[in-house]
Write a structure and sequence with these properties.
EC 4.3.1.12, seven-stranded mixed sheet, ODC_N, Rossmann fold, alpha/beta, ornithine cyclodeaminase, domain 1, Ornithine cyclodeaminase, lyase, globular, ornithine cyclodeaminase activity
């Protein structure tokens, strides 16, 4: 069995390829050739959590199981906030063919699905991106947007402003040409941004709906447990279109949507899954806001693992 590190994977497998592979995987899912179980989420202590995610692709003839730890405060001890490994098995003989570090792949597949959803829902002329939360998932989430929209301005907000400085440098070193501004007030981000990315561990909304720019699209990537919230209920209530990365997963885990349903401000049948959204056109006027919500699903991780494995061998 081969073993591949994050560094080896990152050198050969990029966002454009991940978006293409994710799109193909969603079509395979629509063909009924992917089987999965809902991920098992086990809280450890505080906001630390372990996740276990299995899936089988009968078209690509691979199975994947990902084990992921999310420890938000790890940076203080010199460890990544997100650590993961995926075991890939070929289905002809059941041989475990590879173990892949999956921290980078987790971030990459999150960015890939963000890119697909942003392309479906955001205005084609969107030029300004707002980023709320500059932690482990935020960078690739931004790259996913940059892959599908010609972004000219990026605004950053984080509770710890110094983390925005490092994030800005990382974007610039990656070759991002957009003007990048660090904001001390989250309202300065939401009021001016055509696309808003959130990736936090907040237990309450990270912005007020009244300050969201008309016509904005929101990508919500945090709040992966029922007690967490990022997107304001009022934004959920008035959104013209809502897409979930995986409907069953969001119903079980996405705190702000669970709360909105319980308060009568949202109904689950108002949203559709990303796989069902691929071949649809979404009408909207200049003031409509749209939302993409992700909690992750094993077929996204499997897609990235298979794509990377094929590039590596």
């Amino acid at each position: 069995m081969k073993t591949f590190t994050d560094k080896e994977i990152e050198q050969v497998y990029k966002m454009d390829e991940a978006i293409k592979d994710t799109y193909n995987t969603l079509n395979t899912l629509n063909e009924g050739l992917i089987k999965m179980e809902q991920r098992t989420v086990i809280p450890v202590e505080g906001d630390k959590v372990m996740l276990y995610m299995p899936c089988v692709d009968n078209k690509e003839k691979f199975s994947a199981v990902k084990i992921i730890s999310i420890y938000p405060d790890n940076a203080a001890d010199g460890y990544p906030a997100t650590q993961a490994v995926t075991v890939l098995t070929e289905l002809e003989h059941g041989e475990n063919v590879a173990t892949l570090d999956a921290s980078y792949l987790t971030k990459l597949r999150t960015g890939a699905m963000t890119g697909i959803a942003t392309d479906l829902l955001s205005k084609k002329e969107a030029k300004e991106l707002g980023i709320i939360g500059t932690g482990g998932m935020a960078f690739e989430q931004a790259l996913g947007v940059l892959e599908v929209r010609d972004i000219k301005k990026i605004r950053l907000f984080n509770r710890t402003l110094s983390k925005c400085d490092n994030f800005k440098i990382r974007l610039e070193e990656h070759g991002v040409k957009a003007d990048i501004e660090i904001c001390e007030d989250v309202n300065d981000v939401t009021s001016a941004s055509d696309i808003i990315n959130t990736a936090t561990n907040s237990t309450q909304a990270v912005f007020e709906d009244e300050h969201v720019k008309e016509g904005a699209h929101i990508n919500g990537l945090g709040s992966y447990m029922p007690e967490m919230r990022e997107i304001h209920t009022d934004s959920i209530k008035r959104a013209r279109h809502v897409i979930f990365d995986d409907v069953d997963g969001v119903i079980e885990e996405a705190g702000e949507f669970i709360h909105a349903v319980e308060s009568g401000d949202f109904k689950w049948n108002k949203a559709i899954g990303l796989k069902d959204a691929l071949n649809q056109e979404f009408e909207r006027n200049n003031s409509d806001i749209t939302i993409f919500k992700s909690v992750g699903a094993s077929y996204y991780d499997m897609s990235a693992a298979i794509g990377a494995y094929k590039k590596l061998v």
